[in-house]
Automatic annotation (TrEMBL):
It is found in: Cell membrane. Keywords: Antibiotic resistance, ATP-binding, Nucleotide-binding, Transport. This is ABC transporter ATP-binding protein. SMART domains: AAA (SM00382). Belongs to the ABC transporter superfamily. The keyword ATP-binding applies.
Length: 338
C-alpha cells in the first residue's frame, strides 16, 4: 500500500518570504463547553499583497478566525500562520508582522490621539527617533492632523476608527487585519477608508478584512472566502463567485399595447434570452415581462427592445437585474436571521 505524499510544502516548512501572507489549515476553535465549534475545520490561504475578504453571517466565525490569527484567541486545533510564522508557537513574532483594526474601538483614553500611536510604536519596538515622525505621517494620511492632541473620547466614531487604522500601521505590518472597518462610518469616511485600503494593498501590505457589506467586499477584495457555521463555503474572486451563481441576469419590462403571447414567443427566440415570464397581475393595466438572459442583461437589451418595438408595443419601464455578491451570499448562507 502506498503512503500518501504531498508535493506542496506546508507553511511551517517554507521560508517566511515564500509562505502565504496568511494560512489557516483545518483550524478549529471551540469556546469553553460549547458543543458546536465557532470555527470548524477552516482552511484557506491569502496571497501576499492581496486584499482578502472574509464574509459570513453573524456568528459565522469570522472574528474568531481573525482572533486566532492575531493571537487574541487560542485555537483548539489546526494551524494558523501569518507571513509564515505560526501564531500559536510564536505569538510575539506574529504580532511583529501583523496589524489589527478590531471591531470594537480599544483606544487608550489616558493618551491623546498622537500618544496612542507613539505608545503603540514603542510597544512594538519602533526606534524612539522614528515614532513621532511616523505618528505625524499617519495622522496626516488618515485626515487626523488636526486631532493629534485630542483625547479619543472626543473623537467621532469615524475619526476613532481612522485613528485605530493608523495605530495598526505604526509598526509597518506585512499583514493588516480589519474587522468590519466601515461599520458605523458615514459615506465620506467609508470612501476614505476604502481608498486607504486600496493604497495599502498597492504598497504591498496584505489586507484581510471581514465585512457584512457586500458592496465593500466586491469593490475592495481581490478574493473573498464565504464562511458559515465555522466552515468555508466558497472562495474565489467576487466576479467568479457571481458568474458561478445558479440564476441569471434579468430584464424586467413594463409595456403597453402588445399581444403578450406573440411578443413573449418572439422574445423567447432571441439569442441570449433563456426565459420569458409574464408577471402581470390580473388587474394590471400594463404588461410586466421578466426576460431571463444567458449572459449580461446589458448585452441582451438592444435585441429585446427592438423586438418589443417590432411588435408595436411601447416600453414604459425597464429594469436590469444583475446578480451580485449579495445574491451569492444569500444563496450560500440562506435568508434566516442569526
Ligand atoms: N468569547 C466567546 N465565548 C464563547 N462563545 C463565543 C465567544 N466569541 C464568540 N463566540 C461564539 O462563536 C461563534 C462565532 O462568533 P464570531 O464572533 O467569531 O462570529 P462572526 O462571524 O465574527 O460574527 P459577527 O458577524 O456577528 O461579528 C458564535 O456562535 C459566538 O456566539
Amino acid at each position: 500500500m502506498s503512503t500518501e505524499t504531498t508535493t506542496r510544502p506546508s507553511a511551517d516548512e517554507l521560508t517566511p518570504d515564500a509562505a502565504p501572507a496568511v494560512e489557516v489549515r483545518d483550524l478549529v476553535k471551540r469556546y469553553g463547553r460549547s458543543t458546536t465549534p465557532a470555527v470548524d475545520g477552516l482552511s484557506f490561504a491569502v496571497r501576499r499583497g492581496e486584499v482578502f475578504g472574509l464574509l459570513g453571517p453573524n456568528g459565522a466565525g469570522k472574528t474568531t478566525t481573525v482572533g486566532v490569527l492575531t493571537t487574541r484567541v487560542t485555537k483548539t486545533s489546526g494551524l494558523a500562520t501569518v507571513a509564515g510564522i505560526d501564531v500559536a508557537t510564536n505569538p510575539v513574532g506574529a504580532r511583529a508582522v501583523l496589524g489589527v483594526v478590531p471591531q470594537r474601538p480599544n483606544l487608550d483614553r489616558s493618551l491623546d490621539a498622537r500618544g496612542n500611536l507613539v505608545w503603540h510604536a514603542a510597544y512594538h519596538g519602533v526606534p524612539r527617533a522614528q515614532r513621532g515622525r511616523l505618528a505625524d505621517e499617519l495622522l496626516e494620511r488618515m485626515g487626523l492632523a488636526e486631532k493629534a492632541k485630542t483625547n479619543p473620547d472626543e473623537l467621532s466614531g469615524g475619526q476613532a476608527q481612522r485613528l485605530i487604522i493608523a495605530r495598526g500601521l505604526m509598526h509597518d505590518p506585512q499583514v493588516l487585519f480589519l474587522d468590519e472597518p466601515s461599520t458605523g462610518l458615514d459615506p465620506q469616511a467609508r470612501l476614505f477608508v476604502h481608498d486607504r485600503v486600496t493604497e495599502l494593498a498597492a504598497s504591498g501590505v496584505t489586507v484581510v478584512l471581514t465585512t457584512h457589506d457586500m458592496d465593500e467586499a466586491a469593490k475592495l477584495a481581490d478574493r473573498v472566502g464565504i464562511v458559515d457555521h465555522g466552515k468555508l463555503l466558497a472562495l474565489d474572486t467576487p466576479s467568479a463567485l457571481v458568474a458561478a451563481l445558479p440564476g441569471e441576469a434579468t430584464i424586467d419590462l413594463t409595456i403597453t399595447g402588445a399581444d403578450v403571447d406573440v411578443l413573449a414567443g418572439r422574445l423567447g427566440e432571441l439569442r441570449g434570452v433563456s426565459s420569458v415570464e409574464d408577471l402581470s397581475g390580473e388587474a394590471a393595466s400594463a404588461t410586466h415581462l421578466r426576460v431571463g438572459c444567458d449572459g449580461e442583461a446589458g448585452a441582451a437589451l438592444p435585441p429585446v427592445l427592438a423586438a418589443v418595438a417590432d411588435a408595436g408595443a411601447v416600453v414604459t419601464q425597464v429594469e436590469l437585474g444583475e446578480p451580485t455578491l449579495e445574491d451569492v451570499f444569500i444563496d450560500l448562507t440562506g435568508r434566516g436571521l442569526r
